[in-house]
Amino acid sequence: MNQIDPWAASAEKIKLLVESSFATRYDDLEATLEASSLAVALVEKWRNELPEDVVVAAWTQHGNALRLTSRYDEAESMLARAGELPVSDPPTGIHLLSVKASLHRNTGRYESAESLLVSALAAQQPLADPVGLSRIYNLLGICYVESGNRPQAFCAFQTALDLLGQGSPRDVLAATGHNLCHALVAAGRLEAASAALVSLGPLYRGLTSTRLLAKADWMRARLCRALKQLPAAQLAYERAYEILSTGPRSAELAVLVKEMKELPAANWPAPGFDPSRAVPGGSPCPPGALRHGGSPPPAT
Question: Which of 95, 128, 161 is the last residue before a domain boundary?
């Protein structure tokens, strides 16, 4: 019994680290990456003794953390390793499909992203988990928005919202409502977007996630810009920039900065602006990051 205690304890710690990494993805990307890196280090130490589902879960979440910090090549390699192993736990397999789909979307491979999400939906349906199902429809809606298929995006987001209720997690409700509002702004349906933003107000006030709050300000800036309310748009952009620029450098920050520079009569650069934080290593924005003028909405 004592011989299996060390790796069994490590397996439990890996699960906790994976959960922690996933839970912090809206709040602290450095913590997200740190927790997933520690999980992977434990996997490497006990690789031969660990159940394959535990290994796949750790590699998948680390791939997700790498993706969220725009390290796409490393994320691709990590997720490929995870995909080589058999998975017996359905939620673990579904998460792998979802993260792969998000990476494909981030890198402009929309058809394969949609196909992966359809597979994830098929695997999720028998689990009787409406929140999990809503998350996948939400990701599918994001994919449709970025590929330019707005009618399908609206359908996906509405389905995601219909699956949720008052007792659903606030972050899932807020992210899904936010993404629907984002799609309405992009489609020029400004009256509907304004009404949606008002209805999201109570949810936003109850959030503790700084990244979701930054996304909310970003969306508010886009709506104000479309309504020609430029001073309000500038203030909202600056609030979003203040939050996003304090975390790890990412491609989404480059999109935000580009939009801020394009704002007519903007007071630019904003105080404290550091252009080297806009993209990883100060490099040009990754291919596809500016496609369809879309900022990446909240994603798992």
Answer: 128
